[in-house]
Write a structure and sequence with these properties.
34% of the residues lie in helices and 18% in strands. It is α+β, with helices and mostly antiparallel strands. It is globular.
Length: 71
Amino acid sequence: PCPYALLERIKNEAASFGGAVEDVKYGEAASVRALLPEERAGEFAARILDISAGSVRCAETGAEERAVRVR
């Protein structure tokens, strides 16, 4: 779960890591589902742990292949 105070920051972090937020479930806290490049997932998880002072943890829930723009 993600505290609402961190929700926008986590969405922005996902985008800055080349990812996209796919879904947000709202309840007592928010639950964010994001797609991230596989090679940046560990770095993203560490960043979220850092900005949340250890209160938010990432979990891999599956894999999905998507077409992406090549730079």
